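Shift notes (night). Ran NADH-quinone oxidoreductase subunit K while the centrifuge was going.
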Amino acid sequence: MNNILNQIGIENYIFLSVILFCIGVFGVLYRRNAIIVFMSIEIMLNAVNLLFVAFSTYHQDAQGQVFVFFSMAVAAAEVAVGLAILVSIFRNLGSITIDNLKNLKG
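Came back to this:
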């Protein structure tokens, strides 16, 4: 496994991570659906996780992989809480567009 990662090259992992992060930023900035924005944030998080794993494998250090493991555990909890909030908003407002969320101000 380690041999395969070294054959591909760290530059390709960096390029893929940057592309994924840019896709996530585009989704956050230009989409109006809260679920799509939420998924875009998760894509950005996974791009950073990919970069951590690539660098930790490149430097033959397991700290980046351990950090990604805990980051994925926190992301799973974040997804559960975020989707619960979105379901609650949908039940109250009937829509989950970002424009309707401005009405929730106190």
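The chain has one domain: 1-96. DSSP finds five helices and no strands in the chain.
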